[in-house]
Amino acid sequence: MPRFNAPKSIRESIRGFTLIESMVTVIVFGILASLAAPNLLTWFSNKRVEQGLGKIQSSLLEAQRQAIRQSRNCIVTIPIGTDVQITASPDSCLSSDLASTRTLQKLSVRQSNLSATVTFDYKGETANQATVVVSTSGGGTIKQKCLVLSGPLGLMRTGTYLSTDTTGSSDTNCQ
After folding, report:
1. What is the pTM of this model?
2. Angle of CA points 161, 163, 164, to nearest 5°
3. CA trace torsion 157, 159, 165, 166 (10° rounding)
């Protein structure tokens, strides 16, 4: 068996980390992770809200295009509540292969008007005016996003929902 004939100072310097050094490293990483976790969770929730609003907007735009293309009325239903599914009537107004992506999971949807449907006529116009607010199901301090649909041209804009009332009964303020 070959013997390790290196000087004693080199043998002592290549031993590795001590238990105390390893524990200090783990504690520092734990502190950094506990500081970063809330911000990371908030960022994920905000991204989920933005994606949900994008699904609503793309569904409305697709139904508007299909109404013009097919020269018929297209009705889009956006239910109010949690974990909602966006549907259309007739079915040809929304692409059937994307039906599974039109579900807003872990999101809450509410509207300023009582109607959960938007009807586009053969010119792509609508008589509906609505403000749709999307937020996470748990609530909290997550930013709420909104989409404003205005008739008769069916113009849409999105923004951040600013609430002046915690009950949600006040008029929406989408900026």
Report:
1. 0.73
2. 150
3. 120
